Amino acid sequence: MxxxxxxxxxxxxxxxxxxxxxxxxxxxxxxxxxxxxxLFYAWGEPVYVVLMILSILFNYFVGLDLSDENEARRKKxxxxxxxxxxxxxxxxxxxxxxxxTVNSLFGGVLAHLGGPIRNPSLPLPIGxxxxxxxxxxxxxxxxxxxxxxxxxxxSFAVYITMFPQLIxxxxxxxxxxxxxxxxxxxxxxxxxxxxxxxxKGLGKKVILANALGAVYTEITAGNLGEMSALTAWIAALCYxxxxxxxxxxxSDMAIGIGKMLGFHFxxxxxxxxxxxxxxxxxxxxxxxxxxxFREYVYIPLGGNRKGKGRQIINLLIVWGLTxxxxxxxxxxxxxxxxYGVLLxxxxxxxxxVLKKIPAWIRRVAVFVxxxxxxxxxxxxxxxxxxxxxxxxxTGGQAHIFTDRTGLFYLxxxxxxxxxxxxxxxxxxxxxxxxxxxxEERKAERVEMEKEAIALALLEERATxxxxxxxxxxxxxxxxxxxxxxxxxxxxxxxxxxxxxNAVMSANAGRSHDSVLTTVVYVAxxxxxxxxxxxxxxxxxxxxxxxFRF
Length: 549
Prior knowledge:
Elements: H1 6-22, H2 26-44, H3 49-65, H4 71-105, H5 107-111, H6 128-144, H7 153-161, H8 174-182, H9 188-220, H10 229-261, H11 278-284, H12 287-301, H13 308-326, H14 330-348, H15 351-355, H16 359-378, H17 382-394, H18 404-425, H19 434-463, H20 471-476, H21 490-498, H22 515-537
Helix pairs in contact: 1-2, 2-7, 3-4, 3-6, 3-7, 4-6, 7-8, 9-10, 9-18, 9-22, 10-16, 10-17, 10-18, 12-13, 13-14, 14-16, 16-17, 19-21
């Protein structure tokens, strides 16, 4: 099941939200969310639900083992957990790629040993890269002491399986939703923000990405030898913008559904096609993946702390792995290393030169670099990618730079390309929601900690002791924001220290917008939703590129 389907929009999501909000208490809501997430996954991958459940159980118990006080035991548990997760991911995602590579390189030798290795060609479990990376980040964060191991199996299972971000991200670290897993509130403003963000993502996916994908497919289905440079550039631009709207649209829908459910997922795309450097592009594109590789691969390898030579090696390792994460093929590895080399040149060779170039020139140059990179991404054969690039820059063997076909596509796609480029390259926040995402995530954590501290203060007053408060006490307590007068001790000091930062209101999601602005946003969202549904009903093009993850 995908978000941009009529089944999801009119049956699955409404029923899930209805049951979710009818049942009281975070624990019951978590059970509803877990069941819904397993059904959502089983809709497309019924067999691999078992694999996901086994992954949940394994990582849950390893996480508990990481709370052991024996440091040697904790290191062994972490190593064991990471290795098993990587083996599972490697077996299902990369075994066929590895076997094909070995057969290709050593075919002659293998022929004398009984023939090539048989390739099982296992179907790839949807979303395995995402939920495996989340599980590994959880284990590392627990080991580092950045979060506590989740004692409740159902809550941990919700973290791994949560359907909004299960099959295509964003990659959510456990500490980002640790508080919300145990306690979250319904805020009408945040729910409305979630609806608006979801609708924006749906429009990106259905109205823009699908139309761009249809043009790209139509152009590339033709004879490359007869294609003009203009036509090839239009195809490359369509693919580049389709990829952005496909993936960022899905991320927006995931973030929106998360907000409807009371979670605040991190922003995953920040107008990447306005980047003025390759480094800046990767700060804006698939932010959660870049953060993951920085925190769990680049920094542990030594980052930039061990000299330039080691830093260059670390960058090449990280970007080779980044490419491989996107797909089990050499073109993806080449695509990743392409960015690794560009980043190395940018940091160590061109840094001083780039500072003297006007920003708009740098933005245009980076956009061209990115479009060229997507050519490697879209072609599994290096020969095909090179041939396509040759047509883009030289007009191919016939040196045709423009023709009637190219002008026809330009006339018919100019408006679409312009409309698609605006949200990808301009700092425009359609519903005024993006700026609040990080603020709300931080404020939510402060508010929950404040309530826990206030409850602890009440306990301190009654018993003279200060202790940790259980989830049941948090859920049963209604007025816990202001401690009674006369309280003293460490608990009161903690409360006073945090009190100025607790800024979340019951309706924080739209507290900065007037009623008229909100009405306009809702009307615009309704229009986008209506157009999206109309496209879906007419059975439009729906490739959804990131299913291969």
